[in-house]
Amino acid sequence: MTNNYPQRTYWLCWGHDLVFSILLALLVVSGHEGGGSLSWSIRLRNLFFSSPPSSEARMDNSYRIYVGAFILIWTSTILIFALVRLLRRFYRIDFALHSFTGFVAIAGYPIVSLYSRNVHGPFMSIELLLAIACFILWTRRKWPVSVYLTMLLLVAHFSLWAWFSSFPFLCCLYLWPGWVWNWGGSIGTKMRLVYPLLSLCCGLLWAISARQGAWPRRQP
Q1: I want to staple 108 with a disulfide (CB 3.0 to 4.6 A). Which of 3, 5, 104, 185 is the partner?
Q2: Maximum C-alpha span of the chain
Q3: How many CB atoms lie within 10 A of CB 153?
């Protein structure tokens, strides 16, 4: 069974799926590669780039690894977006997909930060559990808080994680490897704020589109 939405709601859902696809690809690839192994990127480098035994090639080696990570992220984004848009056509899958995309928006960045051990503050795990509990209440329509207070709580949630998490380091190189020649470490540490900001945008789009009826309700 396919879903037919009004034009405005359709584009809102489309925009949410695009932001979600970028976010999920960034979290998966940088979460894996940021651990220090860089195994996926190294395999891509070896596949697409020749490495002659010259000093110049060795100096350019790390840059090519970041190019591999860049290719991984944006290829994954395209594939995730295509898959999500395909699954949207099926009503029962759409409800499960709605819950999954919301969970990734709220808890994806914190979970990957904890996984990569880049969180400073022992209470952040408790904060994540509270955020997941609030998310469950929202999905079950038992959330007693107003919309405006909910938005403030979302901003506070991601502000805490932006402050206490140092993940990922130099994420600007994942977004565009060419930045390494101009800014390098000076702006790289600030560019990690892209992750909590993108998560916040995804969470807000998810909540707004849900209120406008872009997602199916749970079947009784």
Answers
A1: 104
A2: 67
A3: 14
Q: Mind listing the pLDDT tens digit for each residue in 86-118?
A: 988 887 777 788 889 999 999 999 998 888 888
Distance of CA 76 to the CA centre of its chain: 12
The per-residue pLDDT for range 117-175, each reduced to its tens digit, is 888 878 899 999 999 999 998 888 888 878 788 889 999 999 999 888 877 655 666 66
Residue 20, pLDDT > 90, answer yes
CA 84 to chain centre: 14
What sign for the dihedral angle of Cα 170, 15, 25, 196? positive
Cβ atoms of 101 and 201 closer than 8 Å: no
Cα distances (Å, whole numbers) of residue 44 to 63, 65, 74: 12, 8, 14
Give the bridge partners for 165, in sequence order: 119
In the chain, domain spans:
7-211
- Euclidean distance between CA atoms 99 and 182, whole angstroms: 40
Helical (H) or strand (E) element with 153 = helix 147-164
**Residue 50 and residue 60: Cα distance in Å, rounded?**
11
